[in-house]
Amino acid sequence: MDAVTEQTAESAPRKRRFGVTSLAALGGEAPRASLLSRHVRVLEFVVVALAIATPIGTYLILRSADARDQLFSPAMAALLLLANLLPFVALIVLIGRRIAIHRALKSALAGGGRLHVRLVAMFTLMASVPIVLTVIAASVMFQSGVQLWGSDRAVSAFNATVDLAREGQRVVLRRWTGEARAMADDLLNKFPTLPQRSPAFQDLFLRQTYYRNLFQSVLFRVVDGKRVEVLYAYEAPEATEFAARVTGQVLNLKDDEIYTNFDAQMLWVVTPVDRARNVFLYVGTPNDVVFLRNQDVSASKVVADYQGLRARARALQLQFNALLFGVALLIVGIATWIALAVADRLVRPVDQLVTAARRIAGGDLTARVHTPQSDDEIGTLGVAFNSMTERLEEQTSALVAANAQLESRSALIEAVMSGVSAGVISIGADRRVRLMNASARELLRQAEGDPEGRELKEIVPELDALLDGQEREAVVQIGVGGEARTLAVKITTDEAGKVLTFDDITQQLLDQRRAAWSDVARRIAHEIKNPLTPIQLAAERLQRRYGKQIEGGAGVFAQLTETIVRQVGDLRRMVDEFSSFARMPKPLFRQESLFDIARQALFLHEVAHPAIRFELKAPDNVPPLVCDRRQIGQALTNVVKNAVEAIEARGEGEALPQGEVVMTMEADDPRRIQVIVEDNGIGLPVERDRIVEPYMTTRSRGTGLGLAIVKKIVEEHFGTIAFADRPGGGTIVTICFDAEQLAPLAARDSQPEDEPRPAALTRTGSKK
Questions:
Q1: What own/partner pairs with CB < 8 Å and gap ≥ 24 does 434-443 have?
Q2: What number is the average pLDDT over the span 84-100?
């Protein structure tokens, strides 16, 4: 007991550590979990509120008048970044937690596992803390650099650099302008005493050029204020180029003025030597021209770049912080996604184990778990679990094999019983139903309930009565659903009770009787019809020849002959009905209006019986029916005639309602057309199952062939006829035609009709 207690105490914290135990099972932890859940919901609300509020506050700070044109300090920029970053990082962590909880609810652990949440929290925290610290450090370093760029020291350094570049340019220009001015002064001192174009002056000119390290030197004079005349020259430029350099404002220089200019190849200086005589000195040198140009361009570019950088310093500050913000959120989001994937992978073996355990609990012993190749605790648990399920499967296989023979035998019996058309009922010793096949259920109308276990006398008392006798075969008449059925029953005995097999021979007996009566009708019609005509003719001749000769008994003689003629007529009518029943003419199928046929049948009786109310109810969309118009009219007329006779058979009395015959046509399904005839007559006879048999009648003068002929006509038109009691008294006759089977029988060739069709009748019942 101590070992078991110790093992249980050790297993409990393991379940809590792995987070697979349902919170509902840990009663002590349920209140704490509920309290934690409420705190988390409050935290989520606060984080969402901060995630909305901090960007708005930051925007207001950035748009304020004081901070619009100045840089933020490193501390201020880092504080704003941290204030915006922390709520969104927390929001990503909480969203990851929600996703982890949702996945845990979908797992086989039924939401009891918390490993998803813990792993996601651990991974996101491990990623969030370093990235937040790194982002803050990067922001501080960048803000410090930006602040240094805009400081006074940086401005002084840039200004000193620009001044240095420009001073260098000025030094070079001062050197060459000084050389040119000094050379002009030297030449001016010698020029008045020396004649022009003298070798001595030319030698002086060349020495001045050499000593001053000049690349080009030209002493020229301006004649008439326009034309340039070269007096002395050393490496003078081309005439056109030289004229372009010394024209214009150069010719207007005063005594102390100097003109300086340079291009990509040369620096030149022009200064007056003797302004009174319009003598000028041109000197040129290639030295430091590129340097001066590059220095000037570089100085200008540096100044422009620095000014642009200072103008964009605030925008760069905001862009860099926004970039840090986005990168931090991206890294935290990726870490959360990785945490979810890792959590799924770690929880999957536990999930598979729980799923397999539940399948085994449900009876599926083939359940196995995937065992990883690694030799860790989860792999060992999976191997042990699979070994256990294999042993359970082997043990249950033995039980299944033991029952296989019994089940196969039972299946064979059920297959045999379900395949036979006869009804089979197995009865136990207590006369309770053990088994009833589908045919028996259909014959006895037991399809809805479960007859097994019920006593046979509750279901079919007529069959239960046979068990008391010694007969093994019998013909029994039972009532099923208001209809009489005749069953041929056989009884056999087995070890557990008795087995009853029976067939419904109702239709078979009816067909046999109909065939017998058809043969009788043919013989009667043949034997009786021949002498009827001579008898009638003889009686009429006796009446004509001897009626006036007999004295004293003429009235009696006439009455006797009339009786003979009348009875012969009755016999002839009976013989005609026999012939009609025995040899029904082949129907001629055409597309006819069933509504017109029904209206004609009602009209004939409406005229003859004005005291009875006739009514025809039919929808507007009654489709035409392929049928023999004469035979269908004969059938409907006979049904209406029987209804009229049933109403007249009620007698007379004040309490009796008015007689009525209502014919209703229904065509909800275009493949089925129903004609329903209702009357409030005396109703159906007791032997209602025989009313369609030949020569079965309840009237004194009836032949019993009317409904038999009607049934035969309906069956030849692929229809059915049924009789039922009308609520409140009377009869309901339902005739149903299969229009789908009759449609292909329509005669293609136009043939003359045997009798003219009636014109449209007006005295009919209402059409509704």
A1: 434/496, 434/497, 440/502, 443/480, 443/485, 443/487, 443/502, 443/504
A2: 81
